[in-house]
Specification:
Radius of gyration: 27 Å
Number of strands: 39
CATH class of the largest domain: Mainly Beta
Number of helices: 5
CATH topology of the largest domain: UDP N-Acetylglucosamine Acyltransferase, domain 1
Strand content: 25-35%
CATH superfamily of the largest domain: Hexapeptide repeat proteins
Largest sheet: 11 strands, parallel
Distance between the termini: 86 Å
Strand order of the largest sheet: 8-11-14-17-20-25-28-31-34-37-39
């Protein structure tokens, strides 16, 4: 696949500084790009490498165009533009339709003619696989579950009974959707399991990373909104709601019945307590511990080492009083300064 740089600029609404007729064959990293590759830079850490690049073209903002010795594709958002260019050069690999001979499909399951069910996949009773869906090797789709059009279960993905996956989704190997939530009633020294009777509803255009688990709801469904992006090794507990277009990095744990708003960005290893409400447009830095609701958009962070619970509670109260203590300290400093001046006179 070959495009002239001018063709890419027209397609992706950019401007060219340099040779518009240079042929672009693929995308590459800044260090490895050759005369027919295109790459991008957004971080100033790479300016030194940019000055020595051999790339055929580099996607940059207008402010950084002069830093590049090669042809420049000027874009308002270079990373977004690069993603679109990379997708153009690397389209999804087409697949055959049908059902592999080793797959196990219930008689009353509905498989669209354009869908594919791969080797050793299992499709249970009443399940629906819609048009152009791809069910990879070793996947399991439980009874009465629905896999939306053009959704891809790469391999060894488990979708338990009564769950719904929307359209244009991508689920990577090891994802588990709809296992029982962690619900138990304590009596004495023992625990009685609380039946988990809800399901999981996943919207359109959702991507879920390898070995992420999303538990089914206790009574109502666990809900993942449209456009949500989940990294690897995330645990989402029963009854959680994730708002549209939220992105969550690896190793995050979200306890039961917490609701995360729309367009949030959650860093790696963030831990959420249960029954919280997180507003729209919240950014939470990696490693933070979220133990109370967040009602206002903005950036938040926290990090405290583990310690005895009672000590931690006392320190948390003191931490919340730091602003007031700082004001009082400043007032005392001013009083001392005034007393010192008075003694001099």
């Amino acid at each position: 696949m070959v495009f002239k740089l001018a063709d890419l600029a027209r397609r992706f609404n950019g401007q060219i500084r340099g040779d518009p007729d240079v042929e672009i064959h693929d995308v590459a990293t800044l260090d490895n790009a050759g005369p027919h590759d295109i790459t991008y830079v957004t971080n100033k850490k790479y300016y030194a490498a940019l000055s020595k690049t051999s790339a055929g073209a580099v996607i940059l903002t207008a402010n950084n165009a002069d830093k590049c010795p090669s042809n420049v594709f000027i874009a308002e958002n270079p990373r977004l533009c690069f993603a679109r260019v990379a997708t153009l050069f690397n389209p999804r690999i087409p697949f055959d339709s049908g059902v592999h001979a080793t797959a196990c499909v219930a008689d009353d399951a509905t498989i669209a003619d354009s869908a594919w069910v791969g080797p050793q996949a299992v499709i249970e009773i009443g399940a629906v696989i819609r048009s152009d869906a791809f069910i990879g090797p070793g996947c399991f789709v439980g009874a009465r579950s629905v896999i939306g059009a053009n959704t891809r279960l790469v391999a060894r993905v488990m979708v338990n009974y009564g769950c719904v996956i929307g359209e244009n989704c991508l689920l990577h190997p090891g994802v588990v959707i709809g296992s029982d939530g962690f619900g138990f009633a304590n009596y004495g020294s023992a625990w009685l399991k609380v039946p988990q009777l809800g399901g999981v509803r996943i919207g359109n255009d959702v991507e879920i990373g390898a070995n992420t688990a999303i538990d089914r709801g206790t009574m109502d469904d666990t809900v993942i909104g449209n456009g949500v992006k989940l990294d690897n090794l995330i645990q989402i507990a029963h009854n959680v709601h994730i708002g549209d277009d939220t992105a969550i990095a690896a190793c995050v744990g979200i306890a039961g019945s917490t609701r995360v708003g729309r367009r949030c960005a959650i860093g790696g290893q963030v831990a959420f307590s249960d029954h919280l409400e997180i507003a729209d447009d919240v950014y939470i830095a990696l490693g933070s511990r979220v133990t109370s609701s967040i009602s206002e958009p903005g950036a938040y962070s926290s990090s405290l080492k583990v310690e005895p619970a009672e000590k931690w509670k006392r320190n948390l109260v003191r931490l919340s009083q730091l602003d007031e203590m700082a004001k009082r300290l400043k007032a005392l400093e001013m009083q001392i300064a005034h007393l010192s001046e008075a003694r001099k006179t």
